[in-house]
Amino acid sequence: MPRYFISTSDQAQVHEKEGLVLSGPDELALVLRQTLATMLHDVEKNKGRTIFTANAHDAYGDCVMDARVTMMARKL
Fold first, then answer.
1. In terms of pTM, does the model score above 0.90?
2. Nearest to 70 by CA among 29, 9, 6
């Protein structure tokens, strides 16, 4: 099974050293979505940020998947 390394736009390195062994693209997409959800919940660290990204790299450092969410909240 492939090993993936995740990095995020808030400079977090998720499982940076050991990577994650996942079954494939579907499981990787789930992990990236969960990573973005965690970032959205960290209000203090990400105050003022509107675009959040998480990228997955293989053992060779090649980007194999990226995910992005844009959030905007405004008073009407």
1. no
2. 9
Name the helix (H) or strand (E) containing 33.
Answer: helix 25-41
Nearest to 48 by CA among 14, 71, 76: 71
Q: Is the dihedral of CA 34, 36, 37, 43 positive or negative?
A: positive
Q: What are 73's two structure tokens?
A: 């909240």
70: tokens are: 């844009």
Residue type for position 68? R
Candidates 60, 48, 49, 47; CA nearest to 4 is: 60
pLDDT along the chain (76 residues), means of 10: 86 69 94 91 76 91 94 83
